[in-house]
Structures are given as C-alpha cells and as structure tokens.
Design brief:
Elements lengths: L7 H18 L2 E2 H9 L7 H13 L3 E8 L2 E9 L1 H24 L2
Antiparallel strand pairs: 1-3, 2-3
C-alpha cells in the first residue's frame, strides 16, 4: 500500500517538474493548477504553490500575463519562458535516465 507521507520527499522534489509539465502544456492560472494537481499525487496547497511559482518566476523559467475574466477579476496566466522550456527538457532527460537506471539496477 502506498502511503503519501512515506513518499513526501520524492513528491516535493518532483513538484517543480510537474508544474513545468503542466504549464508547458497550456497557459494556466493558479486556481486551475491547484485543481489539476489536486487530482494527482502532486496535490498541494496555495501556501506551497505560490512561493514555488514566485521562485520559478525569479529564476525566469515561468512568466505570467494578466487576462480579463468574464467570471470575475483578472486572472494571472502562467506560461513557460524559453529558459523554462529548456529546464523542462533537461528534467525530462534526467528523469528518463533515472528510470532507466532504476530498471537496470533491478535486473
């Protein structure tokens, strides 16, 4: 049986990768990110998401744009920068290396 707290360190370490993947697939706003992550093992709280998005913005891997909303106040939509796309690619390559290595070690 998988216990979430048993793997929390791994999950936290992979959260940036998950965010880059999600933001790289579509331009999204924070509430949508929380909803979409909430259906996965990467479910997180605002108190974790917003500081991570701020750091990623300072690191110039994500950017945002304010967009008017028909359903209320403007929304801040996040997208990847070129640096963010490169980081996502690098993480994907490294992830494949790790999974291949783990499979080989298990033989």
């Amino acid at each position: 049986m998988i216990h979430d707290e048993q793997f929390s360190g791994i999950r936290k370490g992979l959260l940036e990768f998950a965010l880059l993947s999600l933001i790289g697939a579509n331009r999204v706003y924070a509430a949508d990110i929380l909803t979409r992550l909430g259906r996965t093992p990467f479910a997180t709280q605002e108190g974790t998401l917003y500081p991570l998005l701020s750091r990623m913005r300072r690191d110039e891997v994500v950017q945002y744009e304010w967009v008017e909303s028909d359903a209320g106040p403007p929304r801040k939509y996040y997208s990847l920068t070129e640096k963010g796309r490169a980081r996502l690619e690098d993480l994907g390559v490294y992830w494949r290396l790790l999974t291949t290595t783990l499979e080989q070690l298990g033989r």
